[in-house]
């Protein structure tokens, strides 16, 4: 029995909780989703001691040093971090070479027009109110305050009275953390089981190439570069280092949170140095000071998210060139001093990558945190250990072990790169291209319909010019005018079916009227003529509600508000980044389909700009050499970029303009207009308009959500249960 208790006592419960959590999620699937709040509760419990721990460890650690010791420690810590940044960033840029060729193009996102937040270094690092910094979770500002207070106490003759009290508080916090850690396997099991049981394959489909990049890079940093550098340069063995990092690594992997394991990292380093008889008071102090500092400064774990910036540039058809690397690297190092969620939008903006790409990062952040967080843990271990032995003057390269690990590192880098490149090439070939997605979208709820390619002669007599809802119901037919190839509002899918945002609403309107629907094509300049002659009852096709058309037709209440944008070749997008750049061009040829009054005003105010009105958007892509850019809504522009991935969408800064779109009826048909306005209000309140927007404009739901696979479901299907 004693052997059983000894075995249980020596078990790594963190590791077993992780393994059992994954197994439970795979077996029971979505049935274990209820465990998520339990895991989140344990994460909150771990956070109780963190901020007080940072304050105590930094103030006590720095306060106990002499002035000369502090200068030496901080200078060597800076050199250590700089060296690791250089090596790590070199590895990150190497992995960008593993991106395959691809078909660029993506759905619109409202974040496209959102301004990227400026990086406020003053707010992040100047603690005007350290208590507010603690309350707001502003770790960098709190660390700066603690460093300043610790340094101020160094030369104070009465500092021991305060430091002794704080040291006792720190010991109490450490005991609290250790008590919580004893029960933390329950939290790890809960978090891992719920994640493994609920994450679906559809969440991985669009960003699986980025996930492969992050995983391969993270594994190289975690298990090769960082630990092998420590093993090559210090007396700490590779295997021992992995064991020391294990619990903190598993916790960070399970929770995606590095903050809660800072005390675990510090105590782990101190315990291992004591075990290998390399511990002394100075090394303990260095560990207590450097762990929170290394967490605050950009870590290689945090910098792995730079892969997303390069991925987003590649995804939008504008991969980062070699000459851009120094600029991007410098921008990254400055911006990553702030929060990642500030740094990434800033980086995207600085590279002129559509800001909506940030939404892609958010959708994957839960998964990538499983790599970023443990990589950060390994980085903090590496910085602290290297700095400790650097201060002890015990870094060595002239050893067989050093040569072995450095040689192994040089071989593993190309091996991981080949793995990433091969996997991503396979995924790129098997992934459904963007134009296939939009070309196969369908209208879900249809009524009997006819799609015509001309105006019937029977309608050209003018007898149907005056109509109302009662007449429509009596004839059992609603006639809808549509623009040909006006993606994503009205277009033909791969099966030859007329689909789109407005087409779906037309079917819904006909269904509510309990009539059939007939679709009749028209061109934008024919809108007023065709409506007033009664060729169709309602025009629905992403129509701009312009002041010029108000004289001849009546518009419904706005259905959507669209953002005006430009579509141009990917390599030319930077030429249209701002209003000033656009207007500074000596000659500019812009094409458009439906913005005649606006474009006429632009051309009259700016003589160097020539505008051309086209019959449809397809004409621009078929004769692209004749025009510099196409004026179009950003929502439609992104849809077209999926068919033509060599094109991109840009909203010039300083020229942001939104406009409403709606339905149009003949000027005399007030009854239909009244019905449409009330019907639209009802559909808005029911969420019909929003659901259509989410599907046709944002692309949500274009890939069917699959039920999460689980072993239990598989067995039930096989047994017929």
Distance between the termini: 42 Å
Number of strands: 13
Q: Low-confidence segments, ≥5 residues, pLDDT <50?
A: none
Q: Portion of residues in helices?
A: 55-70%
Main structural class: alpha/beta
For the sheet with most strands, the description reads:
11 strands, mixed
The rough form would be described as: elongated
Radius of gyration: 31 Å
Mean pLDDT: 82
Structural write-up:
With 721 residues, the protein is an alpha/beta fold. It is 59% helix and 10% strand. It is built from 31 helices and 13 strands. Strands 1, 2, 5, 6, 7, 8, 9, 10, 11, 12 and 13 form an 11-stranded mixed β-sheet that branches. The protein has a two-stranded antiparallel ribbon with strand order 3-4. Strand 3 and strand 4 (498-499) form a beta hairpin. Helix 11 packs parallel to helix 19 (357-391). The protein is elongated and about 100 Å long. The model has no long low-confidence stretch (mean pLDDT 82).
Helices and strands, with pairings:
Elements: H1 2-10, H2 13-28, H3 36-47, H4 50-63, H5 67-95, H6 121-125, H7 130-136, H8 139-153, H9 159-198, H10 202-205, H11 208-233, H12 238-255, H13 262-275, H14 281-296, H15 300-303, H16 306-315, H17 325-335, H18 340-350, H19 357-391, H20 400-430, H21 434-439, E1 449-451, H22 469-475, E2 477-483, E3 491-492, E4 498-499, H23 501-513, E5 516-522, H24 527-532, E6 538-544, E7 553-555, E8 560-569, H25 579-583, E9 588-592, H26 596-605, E10 609-613, H27 618-622, E11 629-633, H28 634-643, E12 647-650, E13 658-666, H29 670-686, H30 688-696, H31 711-719
Parallel strand pairs: 1-5, 2-5, 2-6, 9-10, 9-11
Antiparallel strand pairs: 3-4, 6-13, 7-13, 8-11, 8-12, 8-13
Helix pairs in contact: 2-9, 3-9, 4-8, 4-9, 4-14, 5-11, 5-19, 7-8, 9-12, 11-19, 11-20, 12-13, 12-19, 13-14, 14-19, 17-18
